[in-house]
Amino acid sequence: MPATILVINGPNLNNLGKRDNSLYGTKTLADIEGDISARASELGVEVKFFQSNHEGSIVDFIQESSTGASGVIINAGALTQVGYSILDALLDAGLPFIEVHLSNIHARERFRQRSVFASKAIGQLAGFGPAGYIYALDHLASVVNS
Question: In DSSP terms, which residues pair with 126 in a beta bridge?
């Protein structure tokens, strides 16, 4: 049975393609999910996608889906700086996770530069645009399949 990786996107990522293209690019979330699915197929892993603008919904998804999963890729969006309940759910799940950001949060406003996830993630990718998800998937697939 192939490993399943959860791909979680937080607030406003459902508006990709309509948001500031200079920061977030022109791809929609559906485009990015399509790219991730294609790469997952090549790697022999399954992916399960979830997006919500609500912190509690993300926590519920992690709690409900982590049992059958092997790892998590998360772009918490604006919850990156304050999503302690999401972090707790990830830690309770005991799964390796990688934090992804389309823009380079470290080159943006000071309040965006802090992440509650970074110290517990196995890695953070920021500023690589949609390719960051693919890089994260490649690495996480190698971790969960080793």
Answer: 101
